[in-house]
Amino acid sequence: MTFYDDIYPFYVLQRTSFIFSGRLLTIILVFLVLAVSLLVILPGIRGKSRLFWMFRIIISLFIGVVIVALNFTNDWAEARMTANATYKSFSNVVVNAEIGLHVGLYGINVTLKGNPVVQFNETIDYNEMFSWQEPMEEEYEEALEKGLPNPILYIAEKFTLASPCGLIYQYRYSGRYASATLWTAFCCWLLANILFSMPVILYAGYMMMATSAFIFFSMASFSTIMNVPQCVFSIGTKSFVTEYSHSFWLALATGVLCAIIGILVVLFYVLVPEKIKEAFSVGVDIYEDEDVSYGEGYINTIFLDGVTISPVTSKLKGEHI
């Protein structure tokens, strides 16, 4: 194989373009199984509480799956543009393609999609992952050995230790702290669900507020990447910089939702504690508000010789009358 005469160092095997993250698919499937398992019990719940339990299960599992999934998404920050760029090294061939940079907590994804997809007898549809967990230099060397297109190599080089931009330091540490606080938020969410099933609803509300606080801490940690001097990615005659994307705003919405739930639970517990306990079916005696009539009773005194009898019978008889 040679680099000349428009023959490029292609992959040895036919590549498959990125479709969906396996980790995210596993997380979604696990929570879907939990949701179905919990929703199956709804027919056994009578009255208006059935609807309340359904919303409770759906909202709780939604918060849980979002917190876990945000650790593995690659769109906390994004940048994309369409430009004419040199396709491969040792060649002057220029392709028109959409170039994208997707930043996650554990690494970056660099995408390259041709416009049109098939150009020069090759399908231009790349999605390459570069992880912080491995030394970025090794990942970059593997990309060079694969013969990836120049735009992907250019962006990946910006995240190496030798790059003057120094992006790797801030992005890697910001992602690690953001991930750690998200896992702490997940633990708070688990504790909140346990406490909601016990007669300590007030503390469950506090834990939901703690969940929202740690989600906001993770966002603040990731936001520190914007404090470093912005490194401009220039390809061809165009350039771009990263901006907050879907996962960041989803984290914000989930944090606000947790805060609202926590504040409402605390307020209702202070204002109407019995009502909220009844809503969550904890600490409520089913006979507390019912008028129980025992009717008229008779006592066989043969078996009660020497036993003092309290005037319960006469009292019950008077209430019955």
From TrEMBL:
It is a multi-pass membrane protein. Its main location: membrane. The chain crosses the membrane at residues 20-41, 53-72, 182-206, 213-236, 248-272. GO terms for cellular component: endoplasmic reticulum membrane. It comes from the Eukaryota. It is found in: Membrane. The keyword DNA damage does not apply. Keywords: Glycoprotein, Membrane, Transmembrane, Transmembrane helix. One of its GO terms (biological process) is protein transport. Pfam families: DuoxA. Belongs to the DUOXA family. This is Dual oxidase maturation factor 1-like. It comes from Sphaeramia orbicularis. The gene is duox2.
